[in-house]
Amino acid sequence: MTPLEYDRERIWHPYASLGNPPPVLHAKSASGVAIVTADGLKLVDAVSSWWCVAHGHNHPAIVEAIRRQSEKMCHVMFGGFTHDPAVELAEKLAAIAPPGLDRVFFADSGSISVEVAAKMAVQYQNALGHPERNRLLALKGGYHGDTSLAMALSDPDGMHTLFKGIMTKHFFAEKPTISTWGEWNDADAESLRRVVDEHGGEIAAIICEPVFQAANAMNFYHPEYLREMRRICDERGMLLIFDEIAAGFYRTGPLWAHSRANIVPDIMTVGKALTGGHMTLAATLASGKVADTISNGRPSAFMHGPTYMANPLACAAACASLDLFAKGDYEANAKRIESVFARRVMPLKALPNVVDVRILGAAAVVEVRRMPAQSDISRVIRHSGVWLRPFGNFIYSMPPLVADDRTIDRIGFALMNLAASPPGPPPEDGDFHE
Ligand SMILES: *Cc1c(COP(=O)(O)O)cnc(C)c1O
Fold first, then answer.
1. Residue range(s) occupied by CATH 3.90.1150.10 in the chain
2. H-helix or E-strand containing 409?
3. Which one of 18, 71, 90, 430 has the fewest beta carbons within 10 angstroms of its own beta carbon?
4. 145 lines ligand 1 (CB under 6 A)
5. How many Å apart are CA 378 and CA 321, to the nearest integer?
6. Catalytic residues
7. Using an 8 Å Cβ cutoff, are 42 and 34 in contact?
8. Which of these, 416, 423, 415, lies nearest to 369 by C-alpha position?
């Protein structure tokens, strides 16, 4: 069997059938904005390999940091040990985090950092004598990961209905409808206030993806919504958790998407671009108030600790990634990409199959009535030399933040070809997510 044949028979891919597997390409190497396949394709990675490859693939500075760390120590348990890469990374994160969020828990993936954030909120309320506050309030249209707690906080009408039986019930407000660039209307947060009025006594924290609901709804919403959340949390003694795993690190323009609202959460999760897409690592950042309150409770220990917590190789990669963010002008890059997208992708609104085009920073979303057939998607990828991974009704690009104008132009061309392709068959059940 060739590697591709073996893969087809034995290896699951994300949200894919093993009985009737979708096509996969055989990646051999990657550098800069491109992925090279075994059959000689060189594809622009227009989705930054799920939004993490901010500086381009195999960035020499990050590769070198991993190599140097690997010569000293690849891993050591974090129970009972600390090490330079973890301390250095915690310091670097505290320096760029919103003010006050200088306590850090290192997790091995985004989903885990969300679980950790939710557990912090529950332990915090417990320490304050509110064990009944053990639910969270999240937004419809949101996505926070695939582990069971993170899944239970993601859009309740999505793929997760299948797992209802093993999921705790949390509370949901309606998906925000006023866009980031629209005019704010207080009515958008009406359902948020209603849920809090009805269930406030059971709610430990509110969690959301600030400004940009990515993996589920590709929805850019108004920062005033976040200010309303902050007001509610302050009034009702709830914590505010911002999941910046997708939107953080300049994806929507500013370093943190929530900075548009000029408020600070109590807990924040980061992941994806943290290591520039070189190693898996995420972190949960908390305020001193959260950490101290948990420490004064019983147990005083925070009850989580993954095997690969603060893996030194991943921390070294993240340190190098944060150095790159600090050295370059990534906000300007995102703005530049936004303007090329505006020129190249906004006009797709006129196509009959296109419902809406939304662009914010280095993210462009083309919402279509019907997705093209898989064979057309594959054809456009090969023909344009651009890797795209549309899902649901969304054809989108979130390119490496270092992509130059010509690369963005080329991505715009691929998005156009895909949006103009004939619509495929209606989606099958369970086809709506990555
Ligand atoms: C991707 C994502 C996660 C989950 O991260 P994993 O590393 O895939 O576990 C959580 N929250 C948001 C907003 C994400 O985009």
1. 3-58+329-419
2. helix 405-420
3. 71
4. yes
5. 32
6. 15, 143, 243, 272
7. yes
8. 423
- Identity of residue 182: G
* Residue 143 CB less than 6 A away from ligand 1: yes
Q: Answer yes or no: are the C-beta atoms of 376 and 417 closer than 8 Å.
A: no
Among the listed residues 239, 209, 206, 230, the one whose alpha carbon sits nearest the alpha carbon of residue 221: 209
pLDDT at 432 (0 to 100)? 44
Q: Are 160 and 137 in contact (CB under 8 A)?
A: no
User: How many degrees, rounded to 5, is the angle at CA 194 between CA 189 and CA 197?
Assistant: 130
Pick the CATH number of 3-58+329-419 from 3.10.450.50, 3.40.50.1370, 3.20.20.70, 3.90.1150.10: 3.90.1150.10
Residue extent(s) of CATH 3.40.640.10 domains in the chain: 63-327
Q: CA 147, 149, 244, 221 torsion: positive or negative?
A: positive
Task: State how far the Cα of 398 lies from the Cα of 386, in Å rounded to an integer.
Answer: 12
Question: In this structure, which amino acid lies at residue 385?
Answer: G
List the one residue out of 33, 31, 22 whose CA is nearest residue 385: 33
Domain 63-327 has CATH 3.40.640.10: yes
Cβ of 266 closer than 6 Å to ligand 1, yes or no, is no
What confidence tens digit (pLDDT) does each residue in 115-145 have?
Answer: 999 999 999 999 999 999 999 999 999 999 9
Q: At 358, is the secondary structure helix, strand, or coil?
A: strand
Q: Tell me the pairing of strands 394-397 and 363-368.
A: antiparallel
Q: What is the CA radius of gyration of the chain?
A: 21
> Whole-angstrom Cα distance, residue 332 to residue 94?
23
Distance CA(172)–CA(398), nearest Å, equals: 27
245 Cα–ligand 1 center, Å: 6
Q: What is the model's pTM?
A: 0.97
Q: Phi first, then psi: give them for residue 252, nearest 5 degrees.
A: -100, 5
Ligand 1, atom 6, lies closest to the CA of: 110
CA atoms within 13 A on the CB side of 94: 14
The Cα–Cα gap between 266 and 259 comes to 14
> For residue range 3-59, what is the model confidence (pLDDT) as tens digits?
999 999 999 999 999 999 999 999 999 999 999 999 999 999 999 999 999 999 999
